[in-house]
Amino acid sequence: MTVQLGRIGIWRNAGGLSPELAVEVEKLGYGAIWIGGSPPGHLDLVEDLLDATGTIAVATGIVNMWSDDAATVGASYRRIAAKHPDRFLLGVGIGHPEATQAYQKPYDKIVEYLDQLDGAGVPRDAVALAALGPKVLRLAGERTAGAHPYLTTPEHTRWAREILGDGPLLAPEQKVVLDTDPERARAIGRPAVANPYLRLRNYTRNLERLGYSREEIDDDGSDALIDALALHGDAATVAGGVRAHLDAGADHVNVQVLPIDADPLPGYRALAAVLL
């Protein structure tokens, strides 16, 4: 893969990103900015963030295959890559079945879309695939630079690395709450995990695969589940949880600081001091 992500990046919904934030994150030493929330296929925000910065990579997490056709996305990729070579990783995926009535035969849709990206001139090593289960993880390793799992644990990372084998990118997302009070932290982390993810079957199936029971998943998640999916504590404690993904085989971890409606920079500054 020609795009260098570094070991630690940030993940933030498109609405919470700006060129000014990108400049500050780059100064802190993070390797990549992941744009969440299914950014539209014109990818103007990717270009804006790259224009404002000098070296940090930008990735999409993810462009939704049902929302934006591969020809449009491929043209956007070529425009951006020509201007900022080796700094843009195109993350794509199918989202979740509850989001679209057109959601049918998802694996076939992924294969078709990847074929179309090939035809649109997007290099395979510049694409990452959202992947949770074994079939799509294998496809990510065979057809793209690698996998971008969302809402997972180090146990999933270890399992995903076994499936991918050595070489393909493994870049999970991890939510964090920088608060040492468990009740306060769960009050922040639980809404970000439960709504919508604990209501979406691709995520709940994955959690069951990891050994969580329906009782732990239902009713907005048990404390233990929320603690795993939205790490909390001081910066050093949270950093240890992020490093657990790296120890389990991740190449790169993208960290989402919660709450999503607050300024994330204090959290990213605190984590940079112990992680970077």
UniProtKB/TrEMBL annotation:
InterPro entries: Bact_Lucif_Oxidored, Lucif-like_OxRdatse_MSMEG_4141, Luciferase-like_sf. GO terms for cellular component: cytosol. Coiled coil: none annotated. One of its GO terms (molecular function) is oxidoreductase activity, acting on paired donors, with incorporation or reduction of molecular oxygen. NCBIfam families: F420_MSMEG_4141. This is LLM class F420-dependent oxidoreductase.
